[in-house]
């Protein structure tokens, strides 16, 4: 069926398929079909439609390690109205940016960065950005701890799948390897999965030059350890969600952790993290419309004990999400 804005609205089976892919992005269509009680052909057809009409992408993503976290930042850039678009696109071309959106009437660019070294981090914040014309203000917030997001997908809060269905789709790593870090020799494998998280083992073998058995073994190790996860990204407007916003929250010191943990349980919250700076929590929320956003802010979040101040930045458009430009809204937070 069609919405009033001519956006195709996907149905319950589409939502179930999306959550199934979020549970195991590399699950064979036959296993997903069996769990959902439909044919393999139906799942393949729905998957193709989600890709062509709903912006679905399944991609491999490096998890942020404790070592990397020191260089994990959220940047808020105030720009002149004529410059925000070009500045956002320039940032999107950098390998150390993972998520970029335009907010606040198009005069604010919000960018998540993950530099490889502290020198690279400082070069961007203290060197490149201050010298960029038409940036009027720069605020850098180091992200200290993630309450929700990354491997924990927003669709998991939808309830589209039963507990039993999720368990049937969850990969079994009960006897998995010890924690494994991504090594330089894994870069070709990670790059291939960044392009297509469902790439076949034959395709991964060709991309890496390793034997198929070696690729299988190494991929299992990286997924089991959590060093790598498979992310699902899509346009949430096709599920009836058309309002996205960043929240900059100040919580009382004694309630800081409690507020962050509470946010992680809210269905509207796709991402929440502790931050250093004038705000101590930043979150991304997904709502159906502006009325739902108002209800969430005034009733659920506004009444949460310990919340002292909230600044809301509606997201106008995504410029980059994780590894590619013109990203779609899905988890939208990783």
UniProtKB/TrEMBL annotation:
User: Which SUPFAM superfamilies does this one have?
Assistant: Dimeric alpha+beta barrel, Winged helix' DNA-binding domain
- The HTH asnC-type domain covers 10-54
**What keywords would UniProt list here?**
DNA-binding, Transcription, Transcription regulation
Q: An example of a Gene Ontology BP annotation on this entry? A: response to amino acid
Q: Name one GO molecular function term.
A: sequence-specific DNA binding
Q: Look up keyword DNA-binding and say if it applies.
A: yes
Superkingdom is: Bacteria
Q: Where is it found, in Gene Ontology cellular component terms?
A: cytosol
The molecule here is called Lrp/AsnC family transcriptional regulator
């Amino acid at each position: 069926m069609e919405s009033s804005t001519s956006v195709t609205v996907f149905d319950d089976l589409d939502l179930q398929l999306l959550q199934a892919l979020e549970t195991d992005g590399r699950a064979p269509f036959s296993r997903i079909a069996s769990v959902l009680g439909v044919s393999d052909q139906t799942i393949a057809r729905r998957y193709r439609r989600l890709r062509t009409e709903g912006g679905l992408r399944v991609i491999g993503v490096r998890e942020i390690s404790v070592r990397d976290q020191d260089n994990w930042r959220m940047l808020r850039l105030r720009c002149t109205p004529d410059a925000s678009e070009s500045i956002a696109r320039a940032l999107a071309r950098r390998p150390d940016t993972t998520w970029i959106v335009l907010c606040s009437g198009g005069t604010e660019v919000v960018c998540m960065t993950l530099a490889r070294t502290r020198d690279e981090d400082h070069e961007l914040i203290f060197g490149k950005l201050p010298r960029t014309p038409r940036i009027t203000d720069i605020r850098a917030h180091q992200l200290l701890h993630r309450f929700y997001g990354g491997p924990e997908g927003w669709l998991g809060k939808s309830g589209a799948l039963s507990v039993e269905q999720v368990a049937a789709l969850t990969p079994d790593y009960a006897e998995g390897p010890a924690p494994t870090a991504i090594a330089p020799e894994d870069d070709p494998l990670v790059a291939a999965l960044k392009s297509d998280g469902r790439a076949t083992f034959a395709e991964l073998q060709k991309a890496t030059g390793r034997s198929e058995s070696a690729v299988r073994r190494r991929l299992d190790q990286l997924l089991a350890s959590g060093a790598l996860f498979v992310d699902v990204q899509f346009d949430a407007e096709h599920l009836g969600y058309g309002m996205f916003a960043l929240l900059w929250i100040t919580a009382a010191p004694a309630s800081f952790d409690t507020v962050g943990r509470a946010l992680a349980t809210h269905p509207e919250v796709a991402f929440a993290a502790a931050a250093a700076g004038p705000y101590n929590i930043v979150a991304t929320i997904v709502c159906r419309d502006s009325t739902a956003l108002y209800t969430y802010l005034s009733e659920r979040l506004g009444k949460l004990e310990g919340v002292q101040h909230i600044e809301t930045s509606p997201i106008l458009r995504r410029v980059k999400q994780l590894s590619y430009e013109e990203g779609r809204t899905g988890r939208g937070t990783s």
